[in-house]
Specification:
19 helices; globular; mainly alpha; about 0% strand; about 450 residues
Length: about 450
């Protein structure tokens, strides 16, 4: 390994990070839209069997899980190959895949076809979900990685907001098929932009031994390689790549616990996004109010996730994630009481911070927990294993509705899941060797800045 490092160009780095974050966030907005739109149109599908067939609560819950099964498959496949083939290719293929999947799903006329196409579409969604975190972690400026990650992954709840808004405005004139067609539009505008403006990660190139390409791209994008080389020289990187590195002795315990964190966060996310409108109907709120609850839930996640990410950059993500899980548990229990509507909206918004917003922070925690040669697989593992929670969330809601149990029971169960998430969060072991290497890289960078050097490279002693 050469001692020559390409120094960061802050202006180029900020511009590149903005493009990467914008592309990844937009992809995840439509990711979140695609995963949330089912809950938005569920009441319509259940009320009229002429659309895709007769749906009871249990079948509807099962259908809601099919896309998440596809996400699980897509995430694990991309985790297996992402640290070998790079970030850029997977994101491009993922955008095209889920766009085409949504278009074809809008044409389905049976429960079987609808479910099968939702599963296939989910594979493309899983590719984006599993790769976006690894990508932005390797382009975001040091000290702001949780914030940039929150910007990117807030696209998921922002997509939920978009789904709720468009559901209220366009469901009647366009129908559910028209809403699904909207989910297919990224292939028309986002894919061309990503093709021309999304670079490969210089840090990934360096981790694969492609030093000359990494340095050339680092100069072009302004993305520094200093931290990557310091981490490698410190011996903080497992010898294996991909899932072999994720489940090496260095990362194994943390990976398992991070998986259960994601399991908890995604069970809450998809359980509430699928069934909150139906649960609130049991409290006497009509269809318009029910969709408004989805809007508030996702809006709280977007705003709260970004604010919490700034705290995570200062205090560390582990403490903040545990705190937001606890907040979710408290507010979910409070939602069982008969509060005035404005207070109920406030609790739902806070619950959004503690459920969907917490999952945003978990992705940031995960993507920065692993080293570059394990990052895509690590995020894919947590995203994929977490999808089991996403699968159970809609199923649990369906079982409770089918059993005739009230909304209070659902909120108590979801609150218990949030407390479990907080517990596993505090148990995740720290990666002290990686943290020490990153601190050393920051010290070298500060020393270089103090010397006011403008040379394109510096020497690591």
């Amino acid at each position: 390994m050469s001692n020559t490092l390409v120094a960061a160009d802050p202006r180029k780095e900020a511009r590149t990070a903005a493009w990467v974050a914008g592309i990844a966030c937009t992809a995840l907005i439509f990711d979140g839209f695609d995963l949330t739109i089912y809950g938005t149109v569920l009441t319509t599908l259940m009320a009229d069997p002429s659309h895709i067939g007769a749906l009871d609560a249990a079948t509807a819950g099962t259908l809601g899980s099919y896309a998440l099964i596809g996400v699980l498959i897509g995430a694990l496949i991309c985790g297996s190959i992402g640290d070998y083939v790079g970030r850029r290719r997977i994101i491009l293929v993922g955008i095209a895949w889920f766009s085409i999947g949504m278009f074809v799903t809008a044409l389905s006329t049976s429960i079987f076809a609808f479910g099968a196409l939702r599963l296939i579409t989910g594979i493309g969604l899983g590719a984006i979900l599993a790769t976006a975190g690894a990508t932005i972690a390797e382009f975001a400026p040091a000290g702001r990685r949780n914030f940039y990650n929150a910007i990117v992954y807030s696209g998921i709840p922002a997509g939920g907001v978009l789904a709720a808004l468009l559901g209220m405005i366009l469901l009647e004139p366009l129908g559910w098929r028209g809403l699904f067609m909207i989910g297919a539009t990224p292939i028309l505008f986002l894919l061309p932009i990503a093709f021309f403006k999304l670079p490969e990660s210089p840090r990934w190139l360096l981790s694969r031994g492609r030093r000359e390409e990494a340095e050339a791209l680092s100069l072009k994008t302004g993305t520094p390689l200093l931290e990557e080389v310091v981490v490698q020289k410190a011996g903080a990187t497992p010898a294996k790549t991909g899932f072999g590195a994720v489940f090496s002795p260095q990362f194994r315990a943390g990976a398992i616990l991070l998986g259960f964190m994601s399991f908890s966060g995604l069970l809450l996310t998809y359980g509430l996004n699928t069934w909150l409108p139906k649960i609130m109907e049991s409290y006497g709120y009509g269809k318009t109010y029910s969709l408004a609850f989805l809007l508030v839930l996702n809006s709280g996640a977007v705003i709260g996730g970004v604010v919490a990410s700034k705290l995570a950059d200062r205090r560390g993500p582990q403490f903040i994630v545990a705190t937001t899980f606890v907040i979710a548990a408290i507010t979910l229990v409070l939602m069982t009481f008969q509060f005035p509507l404005p207070v109920l909206f406030m609790f739902i918004g806070i619950a959004g911070v503690g459920t969907l917003g917490t999952q945003v922070l978990i992705y940031g925690f995960t993507s920065n927990y692993f080293t570059t040669n394990a990052r895509a697989a690590g995020v894919a593992w947590c995203s994929g294993f977490g999808r089991l929670g996403g699968i159970f969330g809609p199923l649990i809601g369906g079982w409770l509705v089918a059993a005739g149990l009230g909304g209070a029971t659902a909120f108590y169960i979801f609150g218990g899941v949030a407390l479990f998430g907080a517990l596993v969060t505090v148990l995740v072991p720290r990666q002290k060797a990686v943290e020490a290497a990153k601190e050393k890289a920051e010290e070298i960078l500060e020393s270089t800045d103090n010397q006011d050097t403008n040379t394109p490279s510096t020497v690591l002693n």
